[in-house]
Amino acid sequence: MIGTAKKIIGGFTGKTQADAATDAADQSTATTWKMYEQNRADIAPWREAGSNAVKTLLDKINAGPGSYTESPGYQFRLGEGLKSIDRTAAAKGGALSGSAIKAAQRYAQDYATNDYDNYLSRYYQSLTPYQSLAGLGQTSAGQTASLGANAAQNVNAATTAGLYDAASANAKGSENILNLAMLAASAMSL
C-alpha cells in the first residue's frame, strides 16, 4: 500500500515538476527581456545622437563648403593685400607698371591657393564632431543588435530547457501513473 501511495504521489509530482519547469522558463524569459530592454534604453541616447549626427553630416556634405570667393574674410584679406601692393608700387612711382601688375597677380594667385587650402581644411574639420558622433551611434546600434541576439538566444535556451524539463517531468509522472494502473490491474486480478 505504501508503494501504491508513492506511485500516486509520483504521478502528481510529475505534473508539479512540469509546472515548475515551465514557470522557471517563463521567469528566465521575463528577466532576459527586462535586461535587454534596460540595456537598449541605456544605449538609446548614443544611438539617437549618432543618427542625428549622420543626418546633419549628410546635410553639410551635400551643401558643400560654400562659395569660397564670396566669403567676407577672403574678399577683405585679398583687397588689403592688393592695396598694399598698389601703395608700394605707387610709392615707387610705378603704380601701373608691368612689374606691379605681375606682383598683384602673383599675390592674388598665391593668396587664393593658400587661403583656399585653409578654407577647405576648416570645412573638413567642422565635419569631425559629426563624424565622431555618427561613429558612436554606429557602435551603439551594433551593441543593441548584439544584445538583441543574445537575448533571443537566452530566451530560446530557457524555453527549450523548460520544455525539456516539463516533458521529462510529465513523462515521469505518466510512468508513475502507468505503474499505478498496472499495480491496480494486478491487484484486481488476484
Please write out the topology:
Blueprint: H1 2-63, H2 72-91, H3 98-188
The structural domain count equals 1
Strand-pairing-aware structural class: mainly alpha
Largest sheet: none
Shape: rod-shaped
Give the C-alpha Rg.
41 Å
Helix-strand pattern, N to C? HHH
- Roughly how many Å apart are the termini? 15 Å
- Secondary structure tally: strands: 0
Number of helices: 3
Strand content: under 5%
Mean pLDDT over the residues: 74
Low-pLDDT runs of 5+ residues are: 1-12
Proportion of helical residues: over 70%
What does this structure look like?
Helices cover 91% and strands 0% of the residues. By secondary structure, it is an all-alpha fold. It has one domain. α2 (72-91) runs antiparallel to α3. The longest helix is centred in the last third of the chain and has 91 residues, at 98-188. It is rod-shaped. The two termini are 15 Å apart.
Features:
single chain, 190 residues, mainly alpha, 91% helix, rod-shaped
